[in-house]
């Protein structure tokens, strides 16, 4: 039997229920800014060896919880596990980011793709989820995640990261039928992947649409939003996932907040280029909001970090439905003590704003 959850602030906030203070977790909270993470990665030998070892993935997932009063843990993995399981050959070269040995270059390449076997090529992810959930012992909820169909397609077609993703955009323009075929198999894969994480023990789910904001409005609706909605529909119809809160984070897509809120998700992640007050005004109480401090603020002095936290929480107001986070992942060179300042400031400010007038 899973242990009873001792801290459910995060889940309550995503369901827009009252909480005693604002819950907080940080994207990439298990990462290179922590010396203990760097030591574990060195022990593993490579990023992929670390991510594919359930015991080590569990170890690094829990590391930030030993330092900070976080309100959620997030599975340590990578957004590119699905295309790797599809046979594209994911590698990480030092200082160069992810690369695929066999990127998609033709319609025939895409026609060969199929939804991966969650108990085969991706079993290591589910084993990590089960182990982390057991080791958490009800301390905080566990978040499972995936990259979005469009973001996965960007890497799969380009073969690596890119400044403009011109190759994948050209495919969308010149051969939309092939692009839609790719995005459909990816949407079904993402939904199945997140369902398997839910079955293994994840208690909330998140989709990272990292490159959605690169698209012009019409292309965003056709090639990103449409497939985020497909993933959402599949999860809301799924036995294992339908009861879990789902957060969509489409970085740089603030002009599409209303449409994103209309997908049926439970929460929207926000980057730092929009105020929480404006975002809440636009989406009302349809969804919870997660965000959205500029990650660079963690290089500022503790006083400034506290000031910026106060400003963000004041902007959202005393309403239910706010999960504090950065507007993107924590930067590798950040001082962990500044992260502690941030987390403590969130809880303090969250309590203050809930005090009776």
**Helix/strand/pairing class, anyone?**
alpha/beta
- Residue runs with pLDDT of under 50 for 5 or more positions: none
Strand order of the largest sheet: 1-4-5-6-7-8-9
* Straight-line N-to-C gap: 43 Å
CATH architecture: Alpha-Beta Barrel
Describe this structure in words.
The chain has 357 residues and is of the alpha/beta class. The chain has one domain (9-353): TIM Barrel, CATH 3.20.20. The protein contains 15 helices and 9 strands. It has helices at residues 9-14, 35-44, 47-51, 54-67, 81-88, 107-111, 123-136, 149-158, 166-174, 176-200, 217-236, 257-261, 276-283, 302-316, 336-353; strands at 73-74, 90-93, 97-100, 142-147, 204-209, 246-250, 267-269, 288-290, 322-323. Strands 1-4-5-6-7-8-9 form a 7-stranded parallel beta sheet. A two-stranded antiparallel sheet has the order 2-3. Strand 2 (90-93) and strand 3 form a beta hairpin. Helix 10 (176-200) packs parallel to helix 11 (217-236). The longest helix is centred in the middle third of the chain and has 25 residues, at 176-200. The radius of gyration is 19 Å and the shape is globular. The mean pLDDT is 96.
């Amino acid at each position: 039997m899973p242990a009873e959850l001792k801290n459910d602030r995060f889940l309550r906030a995503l369901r827009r229920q009252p909480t005693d203070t604002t819950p907080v977790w940080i994207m990439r909270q298990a990462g290179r800014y922590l010396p203990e993470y760097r030591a574990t990665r060195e022990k593993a030998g490579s990023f992929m060896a670390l991510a594919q070892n359930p015991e080590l993935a569990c170890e690094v997932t829990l590391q930030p919880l030993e330092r900070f009063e976080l309100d959620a843990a997030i599975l340590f993995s990578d957004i590119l596990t699905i295309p790797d399981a599809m046979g594209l050959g994911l590698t990480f070269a030092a200082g160069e980011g992810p690369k695929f040995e066999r990127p998609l270059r033709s319609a025939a390449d895409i026609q060969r793709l199929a939804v991966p076997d969650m108990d085969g090529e991706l079993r290591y992810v589910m084993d990590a989820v089960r182990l982390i959930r057991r080791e958490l012992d009800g301390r905080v909820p566990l978040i499972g995640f995936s990259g979005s169909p469009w973001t996965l397609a960007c890497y799969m077609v380009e073969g690596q990261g890119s400044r403009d993703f011109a190759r994948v955009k050209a495919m969308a323009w010149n051969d939309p039928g092939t692009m839609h075929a790719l995005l459909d198999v990816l949407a079904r894969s993402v939904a199945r992947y997140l369902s398997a994480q839910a079955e293994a023990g994840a208690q909330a789910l998140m989709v990272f649409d990292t490159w959605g904001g690169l698209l012009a409005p019409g292309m965003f609706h056709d090639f990103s939003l449409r497939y985020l909605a497909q993933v959402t529909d599949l999860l809301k119809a799924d036995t294992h996932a339908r009861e879990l809160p789902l957060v969509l984070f489409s970085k740089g897509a603030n002009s599409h907040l209303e449409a994103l809120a209309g997908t049926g998700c439970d929460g929207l992640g926000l980057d730092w280029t929009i105020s929480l007050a404006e975002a809440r005004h636009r989406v009302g109480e349809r969804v919870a909001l997660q965000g959205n401090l500029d990650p660079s603020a963690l290089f500022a002095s503790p006083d400034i970090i506290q000031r910026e936290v106060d400003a963000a929480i004041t902007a959202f107001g005393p309403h239910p439905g706010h999960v504090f986070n950065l507007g993107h992942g924590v930067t590798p060179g950040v001082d962990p003590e500044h992260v502690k300042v941030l987390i403590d400031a969130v809880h303090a400010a969250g309590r203050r704003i809930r005090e009776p007038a």
